[in-house]
Amino acid sequence: MREKTTHAEFVEIPVSVRYAETDRMGIVYYANYLVWFEVGRVAWCRAKGFQYAEMESREERLMVVAEAGCRYKAPAHFGEDIIVRTALAKATDRVIRYRYEVVGKDSGQLLATGETAHVVTDPEFRPARLPDSYRRYFSLPPRRH
Amino acid sequence: MREKTTHAEFVEIPVSVRYAETDRMGIVYYANYLVWFEVGRVAWCRAKGFQYAEMESREERLMVVAEAGCRYKAPAHFGEDIIVRTALAKATDRVIRYRYEVVGKDSGQLLATGETAHVVTDPEFRPARLPDSYRRYFSLPPRRH
Amino acid sequence: MREKTTHAEFVEIPVSVRYAETDRMGIVYYANYLVWFEVGRVAWCRAKGFQYAEMESREERLMVVAEAGCRYKAPAHFGEDIIVRTALAKATDRVIRYRYEVVGKDSGQLLATGETAHVVTDPEFRPARLPDSYRRYFSLPPRRH
Amino acid sequence: MREKTTHAEFVEIPVSVRYAETDRMGIVYYANYLVWFEVGRVAWCRAKGFQYAEMESREERLMVVAEAGCRYKAPAHFGEDIIVRTALAKATDRVIRYRYEVVGKDSGQLLATGETAHVVTDPEFRPARLPDSYRRYFSLPPRRH
Known about the structure:
homotetramer; about 35% strand; disordered N terminus; 2 helices; alpha+beta
């Protein structure tokens, strides 16, 4: 469960496909790729130096999903190890966009690509800004006061 | 999505098996029966006259799962309609026990039986009592003061 | 669990939000909307006159997801009843596209919109065509021979 | 994602709690422990020297769940790393029983215990026997002919 930054942008994390994630086609059910994207985002945060869970509990800032998309290139199977690659696509202090690649660990085959957009909110889901101390994780310059 | 009480004890609710709930064996993945039990409990509450969601939000009482068990008799398939039957097995104002039957809607075949036990807590997961106004739903006599 | 066609195009099916579908934000986890889209597609097939499960088992034709997207407008909560509205967006005998709306049942509020694209394949995931007898369900003219 | 045998019986595998696995109580939804048990079983098989996926595809033998139970001792949270510990409880060439412990990785706290029973079947779910070459993984003596 270690992640590393590659190509100066993508953070990678290995995931073992679970039986629970397959469906009766014998392949991974399509909604589960969005769960893997979440695993990728959490790994991305950790690689950048913070815990997403702490941003929620200490800073009371949520990153609520506003958009998600996925293109499925080749099926993933139970017993297969995959890599979820996550990169920041674009960030302001109000909206964060990530993109993802799901790749077969051994084959290197591209299984899926995707993207998500997140709105920063307070715990009542009202629009908010990233905490100032988190700006650097998203390559945002310090705010002038 | 209507439920009715039968045999003076079981509350029934129909559920359509989702593709997402199957696995690569072509049948419903075993953990999903516990999700169906939750659907059954919610239907049971509604049949008794209250909304579980309101008990949580207004009364600040949670029913935290302490035990769950399931015996799988015959597989359930996508495209099949099933009935989840839920009955109160035992209740005090601190611990509630339910039992369940999952039955094929057309076949009437028993697919699974199960049971769960729930501890009443406050939102910090400390042991608590059922709100007095909810005692009657669980056939508990009014509390003497 | 009945569905009806509205506005000459959308098929509607009610869904009760499950506790299992929520996450620690207190709202429905974003991947579960794709499960609801599946529930919508299955209802669409039934409204058109066929069972998707039978197309798989009898005709040995799968509709493998190639793309999925969702835009989240407002959160959905446990204890809420929603409507999933499904329409055919575009169809050839090789690629089928659906679009979806998720709406609060009581509020009528638009909670999310989405779309999926599906490739018709054989059980080995090789590209195939819709069975001729299914063309009419997708408003495709009979094939000339 | 490495597992090791401890106490001559339990196989351990670390699991990071996913956001998707939590519910609106802020803790892991109860059905997801059964998914973790599956992760534990797969790790157990690998530690013993075989891939469960290969037993299914090459030997055409399934281990269909017949019973599952879980006792929840303390809640698990997003952002927490847990350990799933899996041991063989009892095995014949027709029925396999496992038991599980879910433990906080840092705290060492016992979060849950559980057990599952599995029936060996062929792909049509008819009772069958473990393949002879798999008997040793379950500490069963060679069959006499």
